[in-house]
């Protein structure tokens, strides 16, 4: 294939011969599928995810809003972007992103642009994550009550170059933050 042809993943349907929810969780489920691929019968378990959104909120000084909150599976308080599940049936991704920015950071934005969409862990989850770039950011009229891991969110505005350096130096590990920051950095550098 010539290098000038843009790369793109190919949607591919297989014959799913059986599917079951083998674990029902508080946030998402684990699903087991049996399917046929290349003439072979295969079984795979994966997290059946609702999908999610994230927001790269940028202030007038060019800084990016980061939040730090506890993430139990990795036993860490990670710096990350405001983000959340698509857990309202039929909700548009942009509306969900606007809701998450308000709920997690008490902010809204005047301008919204799609930045990047990616599969977070395609070997173990069907989660698709949509990231928006938000500018013209200002405070909401009301503050939201937060509980559980969100109760002690720490907020910081950080230069994009410092975030990219933190990702490349290995100090920042959140995959959504890494992909979004590198995507915005590349977009702004074009």
Supply database-style keywords.
four-stranded mixed sheet; Nucleoside Triphosphate Pyrophosphohydrolase; globular; 10 strands; 190 residues; alpha+beta
Overview of the molecule:
- The chain has 190 residues and is α+β, with helices and mostly antiparallel strands.
- The chain folds into two domains: 15-48, no CATH class; 52-189, Nucleoside Triphosphate Pyrophosphohydrolase.
- The chain is 19% helix and 43% strand.
- The chain is built from three helices and ten strands, in the order βββββββαβββαα.
- The strands form three sheets. Strands 7-4-9-8 form a four-stranded mixed sheet. Strands 1-2-3 form a three-stranded antiparallel sheet, with no helix packed on it.
- 23% of the residues are buried.
Layout of secondary structure:
Elements: E1 15-24, E2 29-37, E3 40-48, E4 52-57, E5 63-71, E6 76-80, E7 83-85, H1 93-105, E8 107-119, E9 128-139, E10 154-159, H2 160-168, H3 175-189
Parallel strand pairs: 4-9
Antiparallel strand pairs: 1-2, 2-3, 4-7, 5-6, 5-10, 8-9
Helix pairs in contact: 2-3
């Amino acid at each position: 294939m010539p290098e000038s042809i843009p790369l793109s993943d190919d949607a591919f349907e297989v014959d799913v011969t059986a599917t079951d929810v083998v674990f029902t969780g508080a946030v998402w489920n684990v699903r087991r599928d049996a399917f046929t691929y290349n003439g072979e019968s295969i079984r795979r378990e994966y997290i059946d995810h609702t999908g999610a959104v994230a927001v790269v909120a940028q202030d007038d000084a060019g800084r990016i809003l980061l939040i730090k909150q506890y993430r139990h599976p990795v036993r860490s308080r990670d710096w990350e972007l405001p983000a959340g599940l698509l857990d309202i049936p039929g909700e548009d991704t942009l509306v969900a992103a606007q809701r998450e920015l308000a709920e997690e950071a008490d902010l809204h934005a005047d301008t919204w642009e799609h930045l990047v969409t990616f599969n977070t862990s395609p070997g173990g989850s069907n989660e698709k994550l949509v990231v928006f770039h938000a500018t013209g950011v200002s405070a909401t009229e009301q503050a939201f009550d937060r509980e559980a891991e969100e109760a002690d969110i720490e907020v910081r505005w950080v230069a994009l170059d410092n975030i990219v350096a933190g990702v490349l130096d290995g100090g920042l590990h959140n995959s959504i933050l890494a992909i979004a920051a590198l995507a915005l950095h590349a977009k702004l550098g074009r």
